[in-house]
Amino acid sequence: MRIRREKERRNIQIHSKGEWKYQVILIVSLIIMMYPIVYMIGTSFKTLSDIFASGLNVFTANPTTANYRSVFVSNDVLRLLRNSLIIALIVTISKIITSVLASYCLCFMNLKHPEIIFGLFTVSMFIPFSVIMIPNYLTLSQMGLNNTLLGVALPQLADAMGIYRIRQSMRSIPKPLIEAARLDNVGHFTILRRIVLPLVKPAVIAMIIFFFINSWNEFVWPMLILKREELYTITLALQTFMDSESGSAWGSSMALATIATMVPMVLYIFAQRKIIGTFMQSGVKE
Amino acid sequence: MSTIDIEFKNVSKSYDGKNDIIKGIDLLIPSGQRTILLGPSGCGKTTLLRMISGLETITGGELWMGGEVVNRLEPGDRNVAMVFQNYALYPHMTVEKNILFGMEIAKIAKEERERRLVQALDMFGLTDYRGCYPKELSGGQRQRVALCRALVKRAPYFLLDEPLSNLDAQLRTMARAELVRMHRVYLPTFIYVTHDQVEAMTIGEKIVVLNEGKIQQYDSPDVIYNQPKNVFVAKFIGAPSMNIEDAAVDGFDLVVSGTRVPIPAAWREKIGGRTKVKFGIRPEHVELMKEPAGPQVQIHYVENQGDKKSIAFLLDGVIFMATAGTHFETQDTMYLKMDWDKMHIFDADTTENVGYPEGEDRK
Fold this sequence. Notes:
The structure holds 2 protein chains of 2 kinds. Chain A is mainly α. Chain A contains 15 helices and no strands.
């Protein structure tokens, strides 16, 4: 174990030598990507006059927490977080379950024409959201799910993207592994749980992050379904700061945006550790 | 027939419904024996093994195991243990977990699981590697873990799909001996697929030689080597392989590449009225002399194989092989002396062996 770590550490060192050019490229792109986020956080600590005075400067001489205080006064932030979280959890958990089960069937069960079924799944990826938005809205209205959190989640319980990605990962599992288990009379659910899932864990975790962030950031669809303010998600609440009449409350808006970003960020940091851990523990290739 | 024999009754297999990969196999594999399925790649040997395991469906005929037709029985219900070519160890489980997994599923008592685990690890010298992951092991160790995993199942049928093909030569020799030793201890019905004839000869008690989905010969290694049923078996078994050449029967003489030899009296009856046959002789029954004791031949090339030399020579423009000791010295032109009693005669059209004279010692 210790020897292996040592080896891996040494490999990393060898790689970084003479490759500073790539490091520079990475650092530059990192700055480009991080700047808006840092700017958002910086702005959330500025007064409105400071925001216009400081231009592109992230920092301010007189930081204030007034924006945060006003956000918590004017909004029930916890409720916003809860609403977003309920939708994101339902969507993410459901998408992962359906993707994993569908991928397992496509890869390891004796289906007649798995590639045709898989093709039909992928076709659904190519239909733009704007095309199905109105039909979905009408269907949900008929079902009486307008203005409910479930209504937001319902059309998103399965996702072809997840099937595509997880199937890809499952395909790299050597078939004899599954056959060996079948010879031991291991049922499909046990094979899935004890053999397949541990081996595709990185892909599953990646998809969890992907689905969660997607759902968390969703704006148009919740806006269509949720009209009552107590059902607002955090992205919908952000929009309320944009007011063409009394002027936009930029500072408060950035404060709430910062709070909104924290949740996926924490999830990402936590999950990323898990992914790396899985990679170190085992490789699928023999 | 014992109840745990395996019997194929006119079994066939086709993937596309048109061409049969396995063409009407009839085969009885007695319990407790080491049976080898041997043949070149694509001959259907692995398919046959997978049919026994249930991982491959049967499209025609019946497969009997343990006194019942198992055509529709799930792999898990057939009570077979299998060792895969690439070992199929679960990469995310330690050696110990890999071996325990199947027993856990079978709900074997914990103490018994542990007992079998310890015993198997000990038998294959893996006790120190209990906690290792497969990727931390060498090829030979992985192969032994795969054997342990199959062994602890205590299944009456033990299937092995080219388990040694990924090992280097030295390890393979050791592993062969280990396999035979393991079989002697537990005596399961042992069915072993290989394309390596040396492996087949050393491990097998019975060998099934397969080609193009058909059984060519099913017998003990000895008989298969000394009395091959047809040209395919004769050429496939033995290294260097048997010299086989078209020959004409002219009265009481046999004419092989321009060399005329009288047919021994005992053989005439076997050859019967045929005028054309295929003549075969193993390289070790061909002798090359410096003195002009027979037809003249030209040495083509010599391969030193360490324990012996393989010599290719030209007899009237046709290449033949001979083997000799390592100290044997060759010169460009030599003289041929064949052990004619050791010859094999095959029908020119069917390539079937015509048989051997009565009372002939074929060893």
